[in-house]
Protein: Probable nicotinate-nucleotide adenylyltransferase
Organism: Candidatus Nitricoxidivorans perseverans
Amino acid sequence: MRPEPLGILGGTFDPVHNAHLRLAEEATSQLRLSGVLWIPAGSPPHRSPPVASAADRLAMVRLATAGHPGWQVDDAEVMADAPSYTIHTLERLRSLRAEPLVLLMGADAFLGFTSWHRWQDILKLARVAVASRPGYAPQVSEGVATFHLEAGTVSSTEVRTRIESGEDIGGLLPAPVLEYIASHHLYRPD
């Protein structure tokens, strides 16, 4: 019998928020994943540098995922000095793990997927699964799966902006992450 696939969810998670958690939960359920491996990015080559430090982002992801059976955090990218490329992470994981890999992403990330470093090779190492939400079904090619994500998504940029302007963000973040941000004075203007 073939082992259940493992979901791979990478991102800067600056900060990790409830929409990330919902994406992982829905993917696990709909795609019948054995679990999700969360991979906070170190220096993503296609984005501006994260606002929070690598240590803070890693701590927040660990807090957000604690207590979820089957969810694990991989710190290899976030602790690396070099830029993080998905292909290198998948090559490393493929050498360590036997189960099929499913690379999870939101529709917004998928729009730029063909600009990723060695994107064709990514498709050889992992199945790609893209979250679709009401009113927005991404155009995917053969071999790329979709799963349904309810409305109510938010971006990390929006969360940071709300924190900086002093708006309430209580429903957007897991409580332990909210407490961590407050106690470490993250995303606040100087």
